Amino acid sequence: MAQQIDTDLLKKAEASSSIAKDMIAQAIEQSAANQTLCEQALKAASAEIAQAQTMVSQVYSSLQSAPQV
Prior knowledge:
The chain has two helices and no strands. By secondary structure, it is mainly α. The protein is rod-shaped.
């Protein structure tokens, strides 16, 4: 039987990536006007990217550790 890909986890990773994209756009917009808001947006984006990376790595690892048929 083929290994099932955890699409729910991948969808969560996709959502985190989308949030990160929005946070980066916000940081760009705030970069000249408000450095504090820019830093907060970048910090949030960084956390979302890390979360997405973890989720993608979990799915990838599960595929790598699955028995080959």
